[in-house]
Amino acid sequence: MLKARSVSRVFKRTHGSVNALSDVSIDIREGEFVGIVGPSGSGKSTLLLALGGMSHPSSGAVTWEDQSIYGWDTGKRSQWRGGCVGFVFQSFNLVPYLTVYENISVGLSLADNGPKDPQSIDRLLDELDLSSRRDHLPSELSVGQQQRVALGRALIKKPRLILADEPTGNLDPDTGTEVMDIIKRQHATGTTVVMITHDPRIAQMAQRTVRIVEGRIVSGALGAAQPQPTPRSDDAG
Q1: pTM of the shown model
Q2: Hey, how many other C-beta atoms are within 10 angstroms of the C-beta on 129?
Q3: How far apart are CA 202 and CA 58, in angstroms?
Q4: Cβ–Cβ contacts within 10 Å for residue 144, how many?
Q5: What whole-number distance in Å separates Cα of residue 178 and Cα of residue 14?
Q6: Which pLDDT belongs to residue 233?
Q7: Which pLDDT value is given to residue 18?
């Protein structure tokens, strides 16, 4: 489904360069739930952005169904991200002047393969326990509610792939568990999930854990066995 082959990412700095990724290869199989762990500054987020078509590797290739995503023009790559990939960030990245409903609708407007009826947003708000906050701004929400809105924005377009960067990093343990329950339910519908986490308890929820140190994958690049993906449900939010 999604592969990186010999990917390196070098950032130029005033006093030299930084090798954020060094010759990284990884396979993400359809229907998998993969956790990426490693020390701070090890290259986890750089790898996630490269897999998501948002950080062009200095060398190597990232392919989606055997097509090089960095061989596409920017328009096609943006269309792919909008239709197939749901991003969830630790910092939420909500639009501050848009309501909960409007923030989630941003995800719907980007989707080519998602539901087109606005009622799908209301159904998702129910599932995320956000109906009572429908018309609130992000500043009027708790941290946990903001993360659920960010999840809703990713899930509304029914992505084939979710890329999550520390989705529980700013949350207390109970709220983090609630967010992970939502992600696991989505994975159960057949959605592929790749998630960065520093929390060993959260990492254990993944089917496979990839460890990266100093820009290199040291374990877990390939799973021991092919998972059996759950068929995707058209009714899943």
Answers
A1: 0.85
A2: 13
A3: 31
A4: 18
A5: 43
A6: 47
A7: 86
CA 151 centroid distance within chain = 9
Burial per residue of 170-197, b for 16 or more beta-carbon CB atoms within 10 angstroms, e otherwise: ebeeebbebbbebbeebbebebbbbbbb
Q: Which residues of the chain have pLDDT under 70?
A: 109-117, 222-237
pLDDT tens readout for residues 149-193: 999 999 988 899 999 999 888 888 888 888 899 999 999 999 999
Q: Which two tokens stand for residue 210?
A: 């990839």
Q: What is the pLDDT of residue 228?
A: 42
Q: Residue 27: CB partners within 8 Å, gap ≥ 6?
A: 2, 3, 221, 222, 223
pLDDT at position 234 is 47
HSE at residue 180, side-chain half, CA atoms within 13 A, is 22
Calculate ∠ Cα 67-192-195, nearest 5°.
105
Q: And the tokens for 117?
A: 């009826």
Q: Give helix 74-84 / helix 100-110 axis angle, nearest 10°.
A: 120
Nearest Cα residue to 148 out of 119, 108, 176, 107: 176
Inter-residue contact 46 to 20 (CB < 8 Å) = yes
| Helix (DSSP H) and strand (DSSP E) numbers for the chain | 7, 10
Alpha helices in the chain (DSSP H): 44-51, 74-84, 100-110, 119-127, 143-155, 173-188, 200-203
Instruction: Quote the pLDDT of residue 161.
Output: 96
Q: 122 burial class (0-12, 13-18, 19+ CB within 10 angstroms)?
A: middle
Task: Write the CB contacts of 176 (distance below 8 Å, at least 6 apart in sequence).
Answer: 168, 199, 202
